[in-house]
Specification:
The chain has 153 residues and is mostly beta strands. The chain is built from two helices and eleven strands. The strands form two sheets. Strands 1, 3, 4, 5, 10 and 11 form a six-stranded antiparallel beta sheet that branches. A five-stranded antiparallel beta sheet has the order 2-7-8-9-6. The longest helix is centred in the N-terminal third of the chain and has 11 residues. The radius of gyration is 16 Å and the shape is globular.
Amino acid sequence: MTKQHEPLKILAQDLEDLSVVSSMLQDALVPLADISFLKDDGQFVLALNRFCWEDKASNGDDGPFSRTLAGLRFDHVSQVGYRGLERGRVDAVHELLTIAYDPGEAGEKGQVVLHFAGGGAIRLVVDKLACALEDLGEAWPTQWLPEHDEAGR
C-alpha cells in the first residue's frame, strides 16, 4: 500500500536542520524567474518544484513518485552573489543539488551556498542562519525519478 504525501514545513536554524532541508530539496527544479532577493527585508526567497524524496522512501523504488511546489526563504541576508547562472535568462530552470552553510569565524558573517547541477551557485551572506521550507500545494504524480551517477555531476 502506498502512503499519501504529507506537506512539509521545516525551519532551520543550525547546520543539522539545514541538512534536512537540503536533503528534501535535492533535485528540486528552480526557475530563475522565481528567485528574489528582498534586500530591504533581508530575505532571499525562491519557489521550487520539489521531488518528494520522503514519498520515495515510503513507497519504494517502484513508486508512485511525486513532486510539489515549495517555497524556500532565508532571513538575515545582507548580500547575494551568483556564479555560473545566466541571470538574464529568466526562463532558465536549474536543478538544485545541495545547500551548504559556513557560520564564519567569530565576528564574521556566515555564508549559505546553494549548489546547482552544471556548477552554478548562489551565495548568501547571512548574519545568522534562519531558513524556512514549506510545501505550497498538493503534490502531483511523476514517473521521473532523479538519478545520480557515482562520479557526481
